[in-house]
């Protein structure tokens, strides 16, 4: 298994690609598969959130580009900026990851949140797209009591991403 422990900030072109959903791009310990079919183990610094387009340096010197996988999302649009701000407020109050766009919000598909947003007067549409939510005011280290653990764990990808 190819080991990846380092973010790469140079200008070299990636020779490999790793496509992951947002959920898996938030894991610092992960076993996954490159687009080429090779298995990799990610052991990145805790709190690392991988974004589409970021690059990683593998232990053997190869550069791996991270791709944001298309996901089932909900796109939220409102009649005006005030209603959109209200929808964003209610999502933030529930600590929901939100991607901001010109006149829209996107969240991961959730029927309960979809109902809440429709109740607020928003138009909610199912879309399939890469998900790149805002990092948040706390970006690294924002954790609630009972979340996470200091013990290292590796998460295994299953299903289709």
Automatic annotation (TrEMBL):
Pfam families on file: UreE_C (PF05194), UreE_N (PF02814)
Gene3D superfamilies: Urease metallochaperone UreE, N-terminal domain, UreE, C-terminal domain
Lineage top rank: taxon: Bacteria
Localization in the cell: Cytoplasm
Domain UreE urease accessory N-terminal: residue ranges: 2-64
Keyword annotations: Chaperone, Cytoplasm, Nickel
Main location: cytoplasm
Function: Involved in urease metallocenter assembly. Binds nickel. Probably functions as a nickel donor during metallocenter assembly.
NCBIfam families referenced in this protein's UniProt entry, alphabetically: PRK13261.1-1
Assigned protein family: Belongs to the UreE family.
Designated name of the protein: Urease accessory protein UreE
Gene that encodes the chain: ureE
